[in-house]
Fold this protein.
Amino acid sequence: FHTAHRDGKRYEGAPVEYRPKNLEEAYAAQDRFLELSSTGSPSVAGYKIAVTSQVIQQLVGLAHPCLGTIRGGSVHASPARLAESGFHHVAVECEIAFTLKNHLVP
């Protein structure tokens, strides 16, 4: 996945034996992907909560939202024009973004 993502190529799901078996393993895989892709990549621009609606949760087989990282290279000022050829799974969804005055302390 990391190599395909880095090279801008389409990727398929991981073989079943390599897929995370629970949320803890999934977040560990996400953290490892971020480590591998941090060299030469834009810094973290923010975070997102994904899979927030019950319909989408049912579609992907989850019972809860998930946390994700947004890289600076994927943030575009509005209005923006993006070439469809730069994406593999094109979809349109509503996103709400905001900037906090201060950093959150964990």
Remarks:
- The helical segments are 2-6, 23-37, 54-60.
- Residues 20 and 26 are 5 Å apart (CA to CA).
- The chain has a mean pLDDT of 81.
- The chain is about 25% helix and 10% strand.
